[in-house]
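Title: [Solved] Glutamate/gamma-aminobutyrate antiporter 3D structure

Original question kept below for reference.
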Amino acid sequence: MKEENAAKGNSLTLFAFFAMTASMVMTVYEYPTFATSGFNLVFFLLLGGILWFLPVALCAAEMATVDGWQEGGIFAWVGNTLGERFGFAAIFFQWFQITVGFVTMIYFILGCVSYIFNWNALNNVPVLKFIAVLVIFWGLTLTQLGGTKNTAKIAKAGFILGIAIPAIILFGISIAYLVQGNPIDVKIGARYFVPDFSKVNTLVVFVSFILAYMGVEASASHVNELENSKRNYPLAMIILVIVAIVLNTIGGLTVAAVIPQGDLNLSSGVVDTFKVLILHFIPNGTWIVKLIALLLALGVMGEVSAWVVGPSRGMYIAAQKGILPKSLTKTNKHDVPVNLVFVQGIVVTIWAAVLTLGGGGDNVSFLTAISLTVVIYLVGYLLFFIGYFKLILKRDDLKRSYQVPGGKTFKLIVAACGFLTSIFALIISFFPPSQLVGKSIHEYLTILSVSFVVTVLIPFVIYSITSKKSR
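Solution (posted by the thread starter after getting help):
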């Protein structure tokens, strides 16, 4: 397979694969959310990294290197341990959440473009915003029809321009700002490190940090195109865990230090932080801020591009096995499942209409849709960890080039941390958002609960129907 892909020009280097995976996980627009926790963010990022991010990365690395499990990502891992029915459910849940995630990611891009061109209507006029979402999404989708080689190029550019360079600039100017002795808006010290877990809101906040790490396993559908995958996949995962925790900590602390809590805007907080710091040193440097806003937008475009062909690749493998209509197995000359990608695009278009034209951020339907994607994805992670337990306890004889270090007992502890944290996050995610009051809370919980049950059942119904037809 490796030689075949290389011949096609689709072989992924370690850096290309790392950039693709990093683009799916590391998002600068999460920094303001982290910053709302003040110095507690360091504790939350470390705890979330140890209890959830690291277990997902390590378990994924082991399952991705099992002989014969290199194609299909989470579909292959769960399918080979729990059965094809559950494997399809896992990849369906991963795919489902990103169809909504695309829209919220593009909202950030539009915010940057709106700032660059002083075009407020782009953010405030629903119809214009909807059209802009479609232009960006379909434009990026079309670029992915060129195959993995194109995806890798865009991911590398997005990571370097939209994540690495802004992070380095942010780190440099924030250090210079501190060295000058300027006041900061975050209290730093041992007493501010550990949050008060007796408050329910603290638990809700902690879950938001866990959710920021979601997606680390999604690039595994391309592991069969990765050069020396049995060595490079685990290596990419370990590097990513370290880099993500460090950059998220620096980014979140910088935003918290520069922007007062009362003025913190979750949508524009990152750009606001650059604006404060750059204008402090260069009063006429608005053009620099706009340039950085452009870089941030390019970074998120790289993220969208990486996700377009991530879960859809796993769904393609499911279609090849007859679980989805045969028409979805059609690929172009670059081995991209074009029909599946276009079906995905239609679903995203529908979500864009619902989320953009159906009301603002305080709208019950909007908040329910966002929460639904979270709880559905978490169910996928529960299947992922249960599959890993099955691998370790009942199929430990299977050959793989990487294993979580420490023996069977430590492997089970690592997986248990991730599994229990996922259950905790799933329960907390049903707590109503703070902006909802009165009857809206009951409406939110009712819609979310019913939608959750229906969505969980969908892949099993599809599998049941297609399996009967194949008999």
